[in-house]
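Sanity check record (used in CI):
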Amino acid sequence: MTPLNGARAPVPQTIVWRIQDMIQSGEIKPGEKLPSQRDLAVRFSISRASLREAMSVLETLGSIRIEPGRGAVVCAEGSQPGWRFGNRIPKEDVFQVRLHVEAYTAGLAAPRITQSEVDELRRTIGEMRTCFEEGQLEGVARTDLHFHTAIVTAAGNRVFTDMYQSFSAMILESHRAPLTARDRLYEPVAEHESIVAALERHDAEGAVYHMRYHLIRAAGRSGIDEDLCRSW
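Expected output for FadR family transcriptional regulator:
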């Protein structure tokens, strides 16, 4: 992995990988409980807060499920990863909608975006960097959501804004799903910078291109075939 600017992987991300290795090695088998959070925190010499964040990511990935009264249980191999909505609303469907809506609204936003809106997008990128550096993976996902919502809003079409906000829970989950792509963890920052650069130039074609590219890559980081995404 080559983190941005040589930064180390965030602590919760590292713990996600270590617990995944425990599962993949057979140290903990499907259906078995993970050790208690207290024991894991001691074992890995981390805070309970960092561990809880790592467990949240593992649950999003489908590696574990949290059962009342039992705690964290390892899921069976083949469980759908990275998605809490199951087959009712497939992950692919959400990315397909995002790709069309967000690429289109990026094009709408480009000629009308204000400098203050561009500055807010750049501030959001900085906040995303900070979240990565501090290991705040949930903060990364929520900052990512804020970035994309701001662009949809900047397009100036209230129907798109309301529609986007109406399924914000699914969109937020789609921002969590890519977080454990080990070799691609820091890609979204550079992709966001390319989108903002096009918006600041008021380059509608460039904004559409870079947003579409970013969402295809985000889908790939979430385990979706990028070639499939390019056909949408």
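The two ends are 30 Å apart (CA to CA). If this sentence no longer matches the regenerated tokens, the check is flagged for review.
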